[in-house]
C-alpha cells in the first residue's frame, strides 16, 4: 500500500484519487445545503422550488454586479491615492470640480446599471405573484402560537404546534438536553411539530395566508418566499416543490412571548403517496372547506375517509 501511495504521489494522481473518494460526500453535502440553511453557511441556498432557484439566480446576478462595481470604484480610489499622492508632487486638478460632463457620466452609468438589474428583478417578482393555474390550494392561518392548515376543497384541516419533546425541553430547569433532539442527523430543537404540512411534489400549490389574532409570517427558506399573515387580510403565494424531503421554517414576525416556539415543517412527498395520505386523514366538520366538501359529496353520511377520497385535489389524482 505504501508503494502504491508513493507511486500515486510521483505521478501526481493522488489528489485526483482523493477527490474521487470525496466526491460522493461532497455531492451529499451540496444536496443538503440546497434545502435548509446550514450552520456557518455564507451564501443563500438554491432551495427546492422554481421560485427559490429564481431568487437564488437573481441574488447571484446582483452579487456579481456589486462585486464588479466595487472593484472599479475602490480600484480607482486606490490608484488615485497612490499615483497622485502629495509626496510625489501631485497638484490638485480643479478642472473636474462642478464639471457638467463628469456629473452626467457618473449619474448616467448608475442609472443604466439599475435599469439592467431591474429587468430580471421585475421578472422574478411577477412570477412570484402569479398564482394562476394552481392545481390545489392550502389555506394557512396563524394563531398565537400555532398554525392551522386547511386543504381547500377537502374536509381535511388540522392545527400544527410545537412538538412535545421540544416543548418539554424548553421549559425552565427541565434538565433536558436540546442537542439530543435530532432527526436524520439534524437537530430539531424548536424546529419540529406534531403535525407537518404534507404536500405533493411537481405540483403548483397556491397558498392563501391569514391570521386570527396578531400579525405572523409564514416562512420556509427552502421554498424561497415569506408571506405575512395579517388578521382581516388574505395574502397569496405559490410553490412547486421539485425534490421530496422535509423542509423546516419558523414564524418570521414577532407575535408575542412564544414567537420563537411556532415552527413550520413541510413534508414533500410523491403525488401517489400524498393521495394516500390525504384519503387517510379524518375530516374536520367545523372547517369552511369541510362544509363545502360535504355539499359536493352526494352521500353526506359516508365515512370521513371516503369523503376525503372523493374530494382529493386534481393534483393528487
Tell me what you see in this structure.
This protein has eight helices and twelve strands. It is of the alpha+beta class and 317 residues long. The protein folds into three domains: 2-33, no CATH class; 50-129, Helix Hairpins (Orthogonal Bundle); 136-316, Immunoglobulin-like, CATH 2.60.40. A hairpin with a 2-residue loop joins strand 4 (182-183) and strand 5 (186-187). The longest helix has 34 residues, at 50-83. The protein is elongated, with a radius of gyration of 27 Å. The N and C termini lie far apart (57 Å). The model is unreliable at 1-34 and 289-312 (pLDDT under 50).
Present the secondary structure layout.
Layout: H1 2-11, H2 14-33, H3 50-83, H4 100-129, E1 136-143, E2 146-151, E3 157-160, H5 164-170, E4 182-183, E5 186-187, E6 197-200, E7 205-211, E8 216-220, E9 225-229, E10 235-239, E11 245-251, E12 263-269, H6 271-280, H7 288-296, H8 304-310
Parallel strand pairs: 1-7, 6-12
Antiparallel strand pairs: 1-2, 2-3, 4-5, 7-10, 8-9, 8-11, 11-12
Helix pairs in contact: 3-4, 6-8
Share of residues in helices: 40-55%
Radius of gyration: 27 Å
**Numbering strands along the chain, what is their spatial order in the largest sheet?**
3-2-1-7-10
* Biggest sheet descriptor: 5 strands, mixed
| CATH architecture level-2 label of the largest domain | Sandwich
Order of helices and strands: HHHHEEEHEEEEEEEEEHHH
Q: What count of domains describes the coordinates?
A: 3
Envelope shape: elongated
CATH superfamily label of the largest domain: Cupredoxins -  blue copper proteins
CATH topology of the largest domain: Immunoglobulin-like
Q: Give the N-terminus to C-terminus distance in angstroms.
A: 57 Å
Low-confidence stretches: 1-34, 289-312
Mean pLDDT: 81
Number of helices: 8
- Can you count the beta strands? 12
The amount of beta strand, in percent, is 15-25%
Q: Based on helices, strands and strand pairing, what is the structural class?
A: alpha+beta
Give the class-level CATH name of the largest domain. Mainly Beta
Amino acid at each position: 500500500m505504501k508503494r502504491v501511495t508513493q507511486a500515486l504521489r510521483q505521478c501526481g494522481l493522488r489528489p485526483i484519487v482523493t477527490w474521487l473518494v470525496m466526491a460522493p460526500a461532497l455531492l451529499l453535502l451540496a444536496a443538503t445545503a440546497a434545502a435548509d440553511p446550514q450552520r456557518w453557511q455564507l451564501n443563500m441556498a438554491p432551495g427546492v422550488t422554481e421560485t427559490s432557484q429564481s431568487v437564488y439566480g437573481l441574488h447571484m446576478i446582483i452579487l456579481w454586479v456589486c462585486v464588479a462595481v466595487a472593484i472599479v470604484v475602490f480600484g480607482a480610489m486606490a490608484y488615485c491615492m497612490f499615483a497622485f499622492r502629495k509626496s510625489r508632487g501631485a497638484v490638485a486638478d480643479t478642472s473636474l470640480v462642478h464639471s457638467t460632463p463628469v456629473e452626467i457620466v457618473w449619474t448616467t452609468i448608475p442609472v443604466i446599471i439599475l435599469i439592467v438589474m431591474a429587468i430580471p428583478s421585475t421578472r422574478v417578482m411577477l412570477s412570484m405573484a402569479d398564482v394562476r393555474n394552481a392545481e390545489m390550494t392550502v389555506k394557512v392561518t396563524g394563531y398565537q402560537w400555532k398554525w392551522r392548515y386547511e386543504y381547500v376543497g377537502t374536509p381535511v384541516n388540522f392545527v400544527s404546534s410545537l412538538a412535545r419533546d421540544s416543548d418539554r425541553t424548553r421549559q425552565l430547569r427541565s434538565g433536558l438536553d436540546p442537542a439530543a433532539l435530532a432527526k436524520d442527523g439534524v437537530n430539531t430543537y424548536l424546529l419540529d411539530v406534531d403535525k407537518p404540512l404534507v404536500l405533493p411534489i411537481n405540483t403548483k400549490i397556491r397558498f392563501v395566508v391569514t391570521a386570527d389574532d396578531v400579525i405572523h409570517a409564514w416562512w420556509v427558506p427552502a421554498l424561497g418566499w415569506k408571506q405575512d399573515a395579517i388578521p382581516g387580510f388574505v395574502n397569496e403565494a405559490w410553490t412547486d416543490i421539485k425534490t421530496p424531503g422535509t423542509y423546516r421554517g419558523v414564524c418570521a414576525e414577532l407575535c408575542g412571548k412564544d414567537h420563537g416556539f411556532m415552527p413550520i415543517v413541510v413534508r414533500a412527498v410523491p403525488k401517489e403517496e400524498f393521495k394516500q395520505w390525504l384519503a387517510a386523514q379524518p375530516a374536520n366538520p367545523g372547517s369552511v372547506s369541510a362544509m363545502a366538501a360535504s355539499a359536493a359529496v352526494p352521500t353526506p353520511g359516508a365515512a370521513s375517509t371516503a369523503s376525503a377520497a372523493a374530494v382529493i385535489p386534481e393534483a393528487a389524482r
